[in-house]
Every structure is written in structure tokens, then in C-alpha cells.
Design a protein that fits this description.
- By secondary structure, this protein is an alpha+beta fold.
- The chain is built from twelve helices and 15 strands.
- The chain has three domains: 12-67 and 217-296, D-Maltodextrin-Binding Protein, domain 2; 85-211, Dipeptide-binding Protein, domain 1; 311-435, Dipeptide-binding Protein, Domain 3 (Dipeptide-binding Protein, domain 3).
- It has helices at residues 36-51, 76-82, 134-145, 160-163, 189-193, 203-209, 260-268, 283-287, 341-350, 353-360, 390-400, 423-435, and strands at residues 12-15, 56-61, 90-92, 99-101, 104-109, 115-120, 167-174, 177-182, 223-229, 233-238, 251-256, 274-276, 294-296, 311-312, 329-330.
- Strand 7 (167-174) and strand 8 (177-182) form a beta hairpin.
- Helix 9 (341-350) packs antiparallel against helix 11.
- It is globular, with a radius of gyration of 26 Å.
- The termini are far apart.
């Protein structure tokens, strides 16, 4: 029977059936002319042997996690590991961006939209045996936004500033009720609260490990952290006391295999039972293999080329708007040609996104013209994209003062992502596209 393990950022993956990895127990080979009593003894030992089997999934990953604190990570590999360890107040429904209850059973929003009161789930335990309650919720939020909190110093909390800055404070009403107080109504706040970055952590575990808590994660999720061998594997085991019921797998081993071809070879050899981010060039051979199953679904992600245009501002009042009293400042690491709007427009005209989709992604992607996938709320299909027009790109470069183009360096992530399955190939092809302008 084929199983499916999904992660928060998995766009496509494929795997064969879950293969039991047995405990190291042996029993005698049945010889000819054995007695009935001997057969019964062997059958009894075999029954014991089978009940002691562990159901272990070894999953091939494109890279290792950076940290295992959901609030202090920005990379997909880290969030894919923490997703099975931690949970939030609310969560996304499987396969959609709709919100449903998780550690909170219900919530009520005030008429002015600035207060959300959550009723928390009772009888939930963290993996360390401590109770999930309002204190844990307040701790998990306050350590991120309160610079005077004793545990604020242990993280960068990168997502807080631009996703949760409207949260003024989180208050404990009683042991199983909390209130989130906003500075202004925020229509997207419930969607944001389903993100990994506000998952609830064990305060006791944080107090025990302090700055090293990210190496010893403790949440309420279906799997408990077991071990982390850096750059090799992370192992989690079933949380038998999970409030939704124990998982069907006893353990999951996330094994690091950075090269997509090597991951596929390991899968075909039976060394792993699943993998992420296959190279689309391998799809035909995968689908022709009766022992493999290729799983696909629309990805909630966007691949893009970011440009540092050289200027920004400090949002001193954290209102998310550039105010007149906030002067423009030069951003660190900028490259002079990119400060010119004409150059940035030329780059947009120079990139043949349709060709990239057809030849690099083999039809597994679509051209993006919004900063979000088409199925998400707020997508605007009326936006007109830049067409591929190398002649126009050259004209703009000449007008900007770069008739012969220029050399530049692209920075790419070191691990595969759903939107960039092989960073080394993508960087070479995109670099050539820019240098031809």
C-alpha cells in the first residue's frame, strides 16, 4: 500500500510504499522433518518478530535544516522538519489556504476587528510532558515581539516584522483562553496565524536549553524529535500521546541527499522510500517505473529573481507605509546598474519565462505575473506581464548607459526548492540570459 507524507512546502514528491525496517531479531530456519511442536514454536517466535517491527520511512531531502525553531527559520528544509513537531493555534486545511482550528478550538473577533479571543484545546501535552496552555501561547508570541523578553535574544524572528507587526500584545485571560490585541484591523491576520512562525513551543524546554533550544525542539505535533546529525539526517519518532491519535509511522528519518539525481538513484535502490523535488527531466523515467509513484499538486510558492534597487527606508513607526518623514536610504550590498529603473525593466524584457517553463521545468510550472499563486485570495489576473523582447531590452540598456551590457553575479539558494529543483543549473542558465543583454 502506498503512503503519502506531505510537508508544508512540498510542491511535488514521489515515493514507493512504506517499507518496514525490522528490529534485529532472528529465528531459526525451518528444516525438513521438523515436529509439529517445533513449527508451533517457530510460528510463535515469528509472531513476536512481526509485532516488534518498526514502520520507518526514510525520506530523501535536498538539504539540511538550519534550525528547528519554527519562529526563527526562513528556509523550506527547516520548516518541513518542524512542521511535524510543532502546531499553531490554527492551521491550513489540507491542500488549500483555508483556515481551520488546531490548538485553538474556536475564536471570536471584536466588532472593531482589533481583538481576537481564542479558546484553547484542553488535555494537550508537549512532548516533554508539560501542559499546553495559555502561558505557552503567550510565551511563544511574546519572545518574538517583546525586546525585553529574556528569550528575545535567542532568535532573529525574521517573519514577525512584516507579517505580525500589527499585533500589539498577547494576553492570558485564563489557563485556556488568550486574546490577541491588534493595533489596527488586519484582514489577513488569521491566514498569517496559520504560518509555522507562530507555532507554539514548550516554555519549559526553552528554559532548559536557552540559546540551544533550536537543537532540541519540543512541540505538540504528531512526531517527537529524536536526533539530529548535522548534514546527514534528522530523526523523529511517533508521539503516542498525540491528541489526534498516534501516527501510523513509528519513525521518519530525513536523510540529506543534495543532488536530485542521487536522490532518485537512492530511491530506486531502496535506500530511501521517498524523496522531494525531483528533476522534471526525470519524470518520464519515473512514470515508466512501476515501483515508483510521482505525486503532483499545485505549489503554494513563487520562483522569482529579486533585485536590490539600492534604495529603501526605515519603517520607524512600523505602519507598513513609506511616510514623508522617513527618508530614502541606500540599501546594503546594492549593485549600481540596478539602481536604474531602465536596467530593471530591461532585465524583465530579457528573460524568456515561457522558455524556462517549457525547457527547464518541463511544463511543471506556469509563468508568474503576481507575487502569489493563482488560487490564492488577492490574485489579480488583469495584470499585464512583461513580454519577452530582447530588442526592447537592448534599447533600454543603451538608454541607461550600458550599450554593451554588464557582468553581474546571481546569488542562488544552496538547496533545491519546489520552484528551483537544481540551483546550479538554474543559476548557469539565468546568468547567461543576463549577460546576453
Amino acid at each position: 500500500m502506498k503512503k503519502k507524507i506531505t510537508g508544508i512546502f512540498l510542491c511535488m514528491l514521489f515515493m514507493v510504499g512504506t517499507v518496514p525496517i525490522t528490529a534485529n531479531i532472528t529465528y531459526s530456519h525451518i528444516e525438513n522433518h521438523v515436529s509439529i511442536d517445533d513449527v508451533k514454536k517457530i510460528e510463535s517466535r515469528e509472531k513476536t518478530y512481526l509485532t516488534l517491527q518498526e514502520k520507518i520511512l526514510i525520506f530523501g531531502c535536498a538539504g539540511d535544516a538550519d534550525k528547528l525553531d519554527p519562529a526563527d527559520v526562513t528556509d523550506g528544509e527547516s520548516t518541513a522538519r518542524t512542521d511535524s513537531i510543532f502546531e499553531g493555534l490554527v492551521e491550513y486545511k489540507s491542500g488549500s489556504a483555508e483556515i481551520q482550528a488546531c490548538l485553538a478550538t474556536s475564536w471570536v473577533t471584536s466588532t472593531d476587528g482589533k481583538n481576537i479571543t481564542f479558546n484553547l484545546r484542553h488535555d494537550v501535552k508537549f512532548h516533554d510532558g508539560t501542559d499546553f496552555n495559555a502561558d505557552a501561547v503567550v510565551f511563544s508570541f511574546e519572545r518574538q515581539y517583546n525586546t525585553n523578553h529574556p528569550y528575545h535574544q535567542y532568535g532573529e524572528w525574521a517573519y514577525w516584522g512584516y507579517m505580525f507587526s500589527d499585533i500589539q500584545r498577547v494576553e492570558k485571560i485564563d489557563d485556556y483562553t488568550v486574546k490577541i490585541v491588534l493595533s489596527r484591523p488586519n484582514a489577513a491576520i488569521m491566514t498569517s496565524l496559520a504560518m509555522f512562525t507562530v507555532a507554539i513551543v514548550s516554555p519549559t524546554n526553552a528554559e532548559t536549553w536557552k540559546e540551544d533550544a533550536f537543537k532540541h525542539p519540543v512541540g505538540t505535533g504528531p512526531f517527537k524529535f529524536l536526533e539530529w546529525v548535522k548534514y546527514d539526517h534528522i530523526t523523529v519518532e511517533a508521539n503516542e500521546e498525540y491528541w489526534r491519535g498516534a501516527p501510523k509511522l513509528d519513525k521518519v528519518i530525513y536523510r540529506v541527499i543534495t543532488d536530485p539525481s542521487a536522490r532518485l538513484l537512492a530511491l530506486q535502490a531502496g535506500e530511501i522510500q521517498g524523496m522531494e523535488y525531483p528533476d522534471p527531466a526525470s519524470f518520464d523515467s519515473i512514470e515508466a517505473d512501476d515501483d515508483l509513484q510521482l505525486l503532483r499538486q499545485p505549489g503554494m510558492n513563487i520562483g522569482y529573481l529579486a533585485i536590490n534597487n539600492g534604495y529603501g527606508y526605515y519603517d520607524t513607526n512600523q505602519n507598513g507605509i513609506h511616510d514623508q518623514d522617513e527618508p530614502w536610504v541606500k540599501t546594503p550590498g546594492y549593485f549600481e546598474p540596478f539602481t536604474n529603473k531602465l536596467v530593471r525593466q530591461a532585465i524583465n524584457y530579457a528573460i524568456n519565462k515561457t522558455s524556462i517553463v517549457e525547457n527547464l521545468y518541463k511544463g511543471t510550472a506556469i509563468v508568474a505575473k503576481n507575487g502569489m499563486p493563482p488560487f490564492m485570495l488577492g490574485y489579480n489576473d488583469d495584470i499585464v506581464d512583461y513580454p519577452y523582447n530582447p530588442i526592447k531590452a537592448r534599447e533600454l540598456l543603451r538608454e541607461a548607459g550600458y550599450p554593451n551590457g554588464f557582468n553581474t553575479t546571481l546569488w542562488v539558494m544552496p538547496v533545491s526548492r519546489p520552484y528551483m529543483f537544481d540551483p546550479s543549473v538554474a543559476s548557469v542558465r539565468q546568468s547567461k540570459a543576463i549577460l546576453r543583454m
